[in-house]
Write a structure and sequence with these properties.
The chain has 7 helices and 7 strands; from the N terminus they run αβαβββαββαβααα. By secondary structure, it is of the alpha/beta class.
């Protein structure tokens, strides 16, 4: 009887420990060649760089492309939803369930027109801020208490042309700055999974 109880508690402890070492990092964007290198897809570019940096391959899975890396004892699962941006919640919920993770182990990487180009803003929770991807995730998960890393893409567009701007491709000048922006965003994702959100915010929120 005591051996069975001890075995049960050890199993529960190991399961909690394993869950504590797993994270899901979701880059938001739209699938398809017509959306490549557009401002709205910077979330895809960040997780692509994470996979490239650690030589991990992508696999086509249910509701998205999935990759996984090991970093400082953590298992980081990377997801690019194959749903359109405004239906991202279904993919996020599915993979949280598959990986047996709670929303506090989730980090969503998105573009933000309310921030200057390249500015990073990490938050532990919050409103969707007008972002359709975050709006759908909030609705599907029935919570906004998950981390999100917003990456500024600027707002240099005429009134009424927001959609054209976010779905437009980077200018040559912006493209020159993009590699450094993406590298800093990748570093912020890794920090979130290792040193925690408070210290990461202090380090990367300029």
């Amino acid at each position: 009887m005591w051996k069975q109880l001890l075995s049960f508690f050890r199993k529960q402890h190991n399961q909690r420990e394993e869950e504590g070492m797993k994270y899901l990092i979701v880059g938001l964007g739209n699938m398809g060649p017509e959306y490549e290198f557009t401002r709205h897809n910077i979330g895809f570019e960040v997780v692509d760089e994470l996979a490239r940096r650690y030589e991990s391959q992508w696999a086509r899975k249910t509701l998205g492309d999935l990759s996984a890396i090991k970093y400082r004892g953590r298992a980081l699962y990377l997801l690019k939803p194959s749903t359109f941006m405004n239906r991202s919640g279904k993919a996020v919920r599915y993979w949280l369930q598959q990986l047996k993770l709670k929303p506090e182990r989730l980090l969503v990487v998105v573009d933000d027109i309310n921030l200057p180009l390249g500015k990073l803003r990490l938050r532990p929770h919050g409103s969707d801020g007008g972002h359709n991807g975050l709006k759908d995730i909030n609705q599907v998960l029935a919570t906004n208490r998950y981390a999100r890393l917003r990456i500024g893409i600027g707002n240099n567009f005429p009134k009424g042309r927001q959609a054209d701007y976010v779905l437009g491709r980077w200018t040559e000048e912006e493209a020159q700055q993009l590699p450094e922006i993406i590298q800093r965003a990748v570093d912020a994702c890794l920090a979130f999974c290792t040193i925690g959100i408070e210290r990461t915010m202090n380090q990367f929120n300029q």
